[in-house]
Every structure is written in C-alpha cells, then in structure tokens.
Amino acid sequence: MNKTLNSPPLKLLLAAPRGFCAGVDRAIRIVELALEKFGAPIYVRHEIVHNRTVVERLERMGAIFIEELSEAPPDARVIFSAHGVPKSVSEEARRRKFFYLDATCPLVSKVHVEAERHHRAGRKVLLIGHSGHPEVIGTMGQLPDGAVSLIETRSQAETFQAPSESRLAYITQTTLSVDDTAEIIAVLKRKFPGIAGPHKEDICYATTNRQEAIKAIAAEADALFVIGSSNSSNSQRLVEVARRAGVGSARLIDSAESIDWSELKGVKIAGLSAGASAPETLVEGVIQAFAERFDLTVQESRVTTENVEFKLPRALAS
Predict the structure, then answer these.
(1) Closest of 257, 268, 271 to residue 299, by C-alpha
(2) Dihedral sign, Cα of residue 91, residue 109, residue 276, residue 215
(3) Domain identity same for 193 and 116
(4) Is 22 helix (H, G, I), strand (E, B) or coil?
(5) For residue 194, which of 164, 157, 155, 168 has the smallest C-alpha distance?
(6) Is 47 part of the annotated catalytic residue set?
(7) Residue 81 is part of which domain span?
(8) Is residue 168 part of a domain?
C-alpha cells in the first residue's frame, strides 16, 4: 500500500518498556538452545509463552507443543513452559525418566516457594489470580488439594469466609492488574488484619512497568493498541489499564493485520504497546502499517529501563 501525499497526520506514542521481559526471553532461549544442542524434536508442555508468532517460529525449528506429558513418546526431551507446572507434572516426568528442562519464570518460581513456605507454617493460602490460567494451575498445584483458595475479584474477597481459627496468607499471580490487585489485597487486610503477605510483591516488575508505561501515554491517546495474544494475561491487563485510564478505544491485536483502520478515522494521537510475550518484530510491523497510511510521527515514552537477566539451566549454560 502506498501512502498518498494527502495522508492524514498521526502521532504514535510508543510505550516503553514493552514486549519481551526477562522471563519470556529466558524461556524462548531455553527452547532454542535445546533444539541447537539436542536436535529436533523437543517437546514443550503448553505454549512456551502465550504468543502464536513465537510458538509458530519455534514449531518451524522443531519444537512440538503438547498439553500433557502423555502426548510425549518414551524417549522425549521435554521443556516446561514459562508459566510453571503443578508438582504432579515434574513428578510424572521423573517417573517416566524424561530428560526435562524447566523454563518456569524465576518470578513465578518465587511465588511457588512462598506458597510452600506459608503451607509449612500452617497458613491457609489465598491465591489472587484468574481461574484456568496455567500460572494459577501451576501455583495451586504446588500444594495439596484444598490448601489454596482462589480469589479472582474484590467481591470474592469480601465474601470469603476463613475456616475458624485459621491463619491466612495471600500470594498473587504475577501478571495481574496492579490497581485491581491492590484493591483485593486491601479488602483481605481489612477483613483479616493478621494475614501474611509476600516479602516483596508478587506481580512482576515487567507487568508493573508495562502498565505504568500505558498510564503515561493514556491521557494523550485517542486510541491505543496492545500487541498480544488473547490468552496472554499480561496483554489483556494492559488493555484494561488503558480503558481504566480513560482511553476511548483500546484494543488487543495479534499484529498489524488485526487492525480495523476505520476505527482510526479522525484519530490524531494513537498509543502502541506490546505484552511481555510479544516480539518487537510485531511492533515494527504495526509501525510500518501506520506509516503506510498516515503522515506518521513516532514518539517513544519511556518510564523506566529494564536490565534484568535470568540464568539459563545448567544443562544449557555451557
């Protein structure tokens, strides 16, 4: 598509940080290095991260994505996704004598450790998170059935009834809305003044930074796009944050092909971000699509710079 001389002007505010976080980068690198070192196929339990572009590229390299270990052959090499897995999964992998690598984000593993610490101390654990999300399934699966109660909303926190004389602790999914989670925690602390919490908040630095970056551009943007897959929790939260901050039109898109350009009629300033599992190539593609249709000015708005790195498993570090 060729831009015409009378293309309408548009300012694109580019949120930063955006896109890959250290945990996502580590998980993808684990799959890449495993393929390089051991050859294809490598079986990955669940999507390594929630982004179809990433998954499809790894599939072309020789990764096979499965939902359960029962789908893997006896001699399989297996990788667990960045979201973490219940203990039963790693136990099954050991029982079947799989060679396996754990790509769980270290910040998710931190929540697992907290859950076990509270359980050992005799506390009933309340997990703030979204039902059915693999991170929540993995976290709840660290403890025996019934040891964790899931709290999804403020209203659920209000109505939760603790077993008599029980000691309580809360932990959270790492990819939640910072503001919504703070409201839920405030309710729990009001209802249960003695409730224990994490030494350092569980919502990860990348989730927090990307939400702050959205807030920084929301006041100016008439429309805002977040690049990310529909099953990506942190991407969905970015859209919610934008809407809550007053952006009239906030949309989640997979790529430039997902944009309904008719929605941009009359828009002078648009915002753009990407969830923590979305590659920068998709951002570049969206910017190029804007440039083909508008007299485009791009302005990056950066709230902080990230320099976090996580170590690779020893089996791949050499």
Answers:
(1) 271
(2) positive
(3) yes
(4) helix
(5) 168
(6) no
(7) 22-105
(8) yes
| Sheet of strand 123-128: strand arrangement | 148-151, 123-128, 167-172
The residue assigned the tokens 């270290």 is: 106
Q: Give pLDDT tens digits for 139-184.
A: 999 999 999 999 999 999 999 999 877 899 999 999 999 999 999 9
pLDDT at residue 306 tops 70:
yes
Active-site residue, selected from the candidate residues 135, 158, 212, 257? 135
Tell me the residue type at 120: R
Label residue 239 exposed, middle or buried (CB < 10 Å: 0-12, 13-18, 19+).
Answer: buried
Q: What is the pLDDT of residues 7-25, one digit of tens each?
A: 899 999 999 999 999 999 9
The b/e string for 182-216 (b: 16+ C-beta within 10 A; e otherwise) is eebbebbeeebeebbbbeeebbbbbbbbbbebbbb
State whether 265 and 289 are in the same domain: yes
H-only helix segments in the chain? 22-38, 52-61, 87-95, 106-120, 134-140, 154-159, 178-191, 205-218, 233-244, 280-293, 314-317
Residue 134 lies in a domain: yes
| Sheet containing strand 77-80, strands side by side | 63-66, 42-45, 77-80, 99-102
**CATH code at 152?**
3.40.1010.20
Is the pLDDT higher at 233 or at 200?
A: 233
CB 203 within 8 A of CB 175: yes
pLDDT for residue 208 is more than 80: yes
Same domain, 126 and 198: yes
Output helix, strand, coil percentages for the chain, rounded to the nearest 5: 40, 20, 40
Quote the tokens at residue 294.
Answer: 């508008």
**Cβ pair 187, 214 in contact under 8 A:** no
At 178, is the secondary structure helix, strand, or coil? helix
Residue 40: count of CB within 10 angstroms of its CB: 11
